[in-house]
Each structure stands twice: as structure tokens, then as C-alpha cells.
Amino acid sequence: MTWSITRLSSMAASTESEPQAGCAPLGGPDCACRAAVERAFAGMTESGAPYDSALSVAVRVFRHHHPELQTGVQELIEQWISPESVH
Question: Measuring CA to CA, how many Å separate 10 from each of 5, 15, 68, 79, 80?
């Protein structure tokens, strides 16, 4: 499990930080970062990673897409990945 966490974390950190085009409105149907965040979280949890580790990786993926946003990021991601969230 640690290998998956380390690998995804380093992949998220090693890419250049440019805001993702097409994220208006943030989290809307055309928002590429939301899909990337959800895939990262799902991949981590499906591989057996703990919730906190999967959430941490999802936050890193989001920050790759939106380095300009600093506050409320974790709360937004938790809304996106919650089972009650409608996609």
C-alpha cells in the first residue's frame, strides 16, 4: 500500500503547476480538475490506502490544477468525494 501512496504523491508533485483550463465554474461539468481529484481519491482507496492518505493525494492533485487557491481546498474536495455528492 505504501508504494501506491508514494507513487501517486510523487506523480502529483512532479508535474508543473499550471492552472487547468476549462475549470469555470470550479467543479462544474467541464472541470477537468474535479475528475482528476476524484480518480486519484478512488484509486487510492481502491488500492487499500487509508482515507487520510487518499485525501492528501487528492488535495495535491487539486493544488496542481489550482495553485492559486489555498483556503477551503480540503473541504471542497471532501464535498466532491462524499457518497452524497451528485456528479
Answer: 9, 9, 20, 24, 23
87 in a structural domain: no
Predicted confidence (pLDDT) per residue in 10-61, tens digit: 444 443 344 445 566 777 767 789 999 999 999 999 999 999 999 999 999 9
Which domain, by its residues, includes 7?
Answer: 2-81
CA distance 50 to 15: 24
User: Is 27 inside any structural domain?
Assistant: yes
